[in-house]
Amino acid sequence: MLNNKLIAASLTAVMALGAVVPVMDVNAASVKVASKKSQKSKQKALYTYAKKMMKQNKDGVNGTAKIFSKSAFPTTGAASGYSDFLLGLKKQGYKFSKANKKLIKKNLVINSKSDPATLATAIIGLQAIGVNPTKYKPAGAKKNMNLVNKLYKQSMSKQTVNVQSQALIAVSSNKTFKKPSKAKFSKNSLSLKIAKNKQSNNGWAYNNTAASVDADTTATAVTAMMMSKSKNKTVKKAEVAGRNYLKKNIYKSGAFGYTYNGKENPNANSTAEGILALSTTKTSYKFVNKKAIKKGQTATPLKAMFSYVKADGSIKDAYSMVLAYGQASVAASAYHNGNYSKKLVYTFK
After folding, report:
1. How many angstroms separate the Cα of 6 from the Cα of each of 12, 30, 84, 156, 162?
2. Which of 148, 235, 241, 296 could bridge 230 with an S-S bond, Cβ 3.0-4.6 Å?
3. What is the annotated signal peptide range for this record (predicted)?
């Protein structure tokens, strides 16, 4: 899931692409794909590294920085990107122990002052470890709290598109979640709000300006609207427009990224978000690892993303392995080993 530090992650993770294996594409040019063997190898390396991180409660980059810590993260209790980190582990078959759950629950900071981003992240993270966010008792609290109801009662009017997308993904992640009375938004109203924030170039930006549109924000907006299953025509058109923006702005390397001062900066985080958005329809799914999107493209997004994964499972130049592992592993899971699924990766029930 996108978080408030995603743009920072992209801006600090400028990485180079590695070697790939060619197959022929319909574009009268070769595009290199991630073979099943390489996918298995890369995912195994990622998983092995992430399990060590979870066991040690370390971010994998800084030898002293923790993933879950109230003292290090006083407003949330966890490192940025922790929900995708936990979801990635779950998708790869990790079984969270009682000790794991205790560590997470005692550190997460959820209270009356928690903002929408914090609540949305917790809703996904808790479900990943098998905890019901509608009956969650925060550390030190005297009674259970329904985080879904609490999120629904937060105003989305002044939130960034990033936070709106996070919230929409969270409330859409489980069909058992019900909108409470006096809710400030519905899945339909929020998806429409996001759709209307689409810029003239068919993308989305953290500050709602065309000049600041980026692949990360656009991809997450598309994923969120698809999660909502809205049938509104404006929303449906926006979903298509967003995917078209991504197709137009993919780099020839197959990666996604950002452009700064005229220089392309592909990176694993942006590429992962692009994969998530492309995986939302059967039509665009084929561009994840089967076909080139544009002429001259040398590799598929999945191949490009995996090229950042080192032999030990760490990700090249990632400033936070919590964020990098989470996004890469969730994106890989969205590919479903080459079999398209209508069940989107953030869906629990």
Report:
1. 10, 32, 12, 19, 9
2. 235
3. 1-28
Long-range pairs of 119-122 with CB within 8 A, sequence gap ≥ 24: 119/147, 119/150, 119/151, 119/154, 119/167, 119/170, 120/1, 120/151, 120/163, 120/166, 120/167, 120/169, 120/170, 121/1, 121/3, 121/76, 121/82, 121/83, 121/166, 121/170, 122/83, 122/147
pTM listed for this prediction: 0.91
Q: Which helix (H) or strand (E) holds 119?
A: helix 116-128
Cα-based angle 2, 4, 300 (whole degrees, multiple of 5): 35
Instruction: Give the model's pLDDT for residue 11.
Output: 36
- In 3D space, the residue among 306, 126, 316, 323 whose CA is nearest the CA of residue 216 turns out to be 323
Distance separating alpha carbons of residues 336 and 344, to the nearest angstrom? 10
The answer, yes or no, to whether residue 318 has pLDDT greater than 80, is yes
Q: How long, in residues, is the chain?
A: 349
Q: 6-338 — its CATH code?
A: 1.50.10.20
**Exposure on the CB side of residue 276, measured as CA atoms within 13 A:** 34
What's the burial of 207, exposed, middle or buried (CB within 10 Å: 0-12/13-18/19+)? exposed
Which residues have CB under 8 Å from 80's CB, separation 6+? Answer: 3, 4, 5, 9, 320, 322, 323
Judged by DSSP in three states, 310 sits in coil
How many angstroms separate the CA atoms of 303 and 49, rounded? 20
Q: Is 38 left (phi over 0), alpha (psi -120 to 50) or beta?
A: alpha
Query: What is d(CA 257, CA 214) in angstroms, rounded to the nearest whole number?
Result: 8
Judged against a pLDDT cut of 80, whether residue 4 lies above it is answered with: no
Confidence grade of residue 12 (pLDDT, cut at 50, 70, 90): very low
Q: Does residue 87 carry a pLDDT above 60?
A: yes
Residue 338 is classified by DSSP as: G
Instruction: Please list the helix, strand and coil fractions of the chain in percent, rounded to the nearest 5, in that order.
Output: 50, 5, 45
Under DSSP, is residue 299 helix (H, G, I), strand (E, B) or coil? strand
- HSE-up (13 A, CA, CB side) for residue 290: 13
DSSP 250-281: --TTS--EEEETTEEEE-HHHHHHHHHHHTTS
